[in-house]
Design goal:
By secondary structure, the protein is α+β, with helices and mostly antiparallel strands. It is 26% helix and 25% strand. The protein has two domains: 6-55, no CATH class; 60-202, Alpha-Beta Complex (tt1808, chain A), CATH 3.90.1570.10. The protein is built from five helices and twelve strands. It has a six-stranded mixed β-sheet, sandwiched between helices. Strands 1-2 form a two-stranded antiparallel sheet. The chain has a two-stranded antiparallel sheet with strand order 4-5. It is globular, with a radius of gyration of 18 Å.
């Protein structure tokens, strides 16, 4: 995507934290090679959105939650030989020119070429389930655009986890979702049949690194 006027660029990324939107290479001209270059030279992860590099940030508590929840999904998928989970550095090209990095994502073996993970650093893959742990740095517009990319690419289910209100939004399409609270149970639906997790367990004491108390 190219931006004819500066106003076009500002309108596209108006709701994004400006410190995360890179101006080099010029917006609209970046490629996967630039994503790899920034990672290799600076150790920073970037998504490629409409030809523009946008740095991915994640706080310690969000990372902790992603690892814990991702482990539950990964262990279930491995136990039942369903597929694999990639973590918060699992960079994939959802469709040509659009590179995204879910906080973690589940890929069924049927979606992997030859039922194995490709060797490319940024493979052309679409997850069955994409999960995002939201923080203050994630704007509504940003997460809406990401949601659209996921479902356009063919993602079946998206979980948006909100640590503060302790809720999970389960999307089955861009405009269809349910909000789960600590009184509800998160399930894998058709994507992970049989997977269940009480939402209260997800946000239990100790999940954010605070001590749950001495072992007994």
């Amino acid at each position: 995507m190219t931006f004819k006027h500066h106003s076009d660029f500002l309108a596209r990324f108006a709701d994004y934290p400006p410190e995360r939107v890179r101006m080099t290479p010029p917006p609209g001209t970046a490629t996967k090679k630039d994503v790899l270059r920034v990672d290799r030279k600076e150790g920073k992860l970037c998504e490629l959105i409409d030809g523009t590099l946008v740095e991915k940030t994640m706080g310690a508590k969000e990372s902790r939650l992603a690892i814990w929840l991702g482990r539950q999904v990964d262990e279930f998928a491995e136990r039942h030989r369903l597929g694999i989970v990639l973590g918060e550095a699992g960079t994939v090209e959802l469709f040509p020119g659009q590179v995204r990095i879910p906080d973690f994502a589940y890929y069924s073996f049927d979606r992997l070429p030859g039922r194995r993970l490709p060797d490319e650093p940024i493979p052309e893959l679409c997850p069955d389930l994409a999960v995002e742990i939201l923080s203050k740095s994630n704007s509504k517009r940003e997460m809406w655009e990401k949601l659209k990319d996921y479902f356009f690419a063919g993602v079946k289910v998206v979980w948006y986890v909100h640590p503060k209100p302790k809720t999970v939004e389960v999307y089955t399409s861009v405009d269809q979702f349910v909000t789960l609270t600590e009184a509800d149970t998160l399930t894998g639906g058709d994507v992970l049949p049989g997977f269940t997790l009480p939402v209260a367990d997800l946000f239990a004491a100790g999940r954010f690194g605070d001590s749950p108390g001495p072992a007994v």
